[in-house]
Write a structure and sequence with these properties.
With 117 residues, the protein is an all-alpha fold. The protein has 4 helices and no strands.
């Protein structure tokens, strides 16, 4: 299971970086989304996957006798998902507005329109 997640994380990171290097701003946002999901999976994988064990430890346990799931990466991922969604929605609205005003989402053409205005 962990090996499969490692390959998926690598695929998401490589696809995200490839999409970030494109000239279209829409593809850039898709690249950011892919990179964000790859980082979330990486944090989740670093928290050690434990099937069937809750992240909560009994209060009476003085010493950890068996492997448990670490709750900190789960909390970090939840926070990252919320912040990432806010960033993505803001960027999509901003790009939609730029496309409506200038009629293009090509970054090279947007650089040339700065001189004309």
């Amino acid at each position: 299971m962990e090996l499969l997640l490692i390959f998926i994380i690598g695929l998401l990171h490589s696809a995200g970086i490839y999409m970030l290097l494109r000239r279209s701003m829409f593809k850039m946002i898709i690249g950011l989304i892919l990179l964000g999901n790859g980082v979330n999976l990486l944090i989740f994988l670093l928290g050690k996957l434990v099937k069937g064990h809750p992240p909560v430890i009994d209060e009476s346990a003085k010493v950890f006798s068996e492997i448990y799931a670490d709750p900190l990466p789960q909390a970090l991922i939840l926070t990252a998902i919320v912040i990432g969604f806010g960033l993505q929605s803001f960027a999509i609205i901003l790009i939609k507005r730029v496309y409506k005003v200038l009629g293009t989402d090509d970054l090279d053409e947007l650089n040339s329109t700065d001189e004309e205005i």
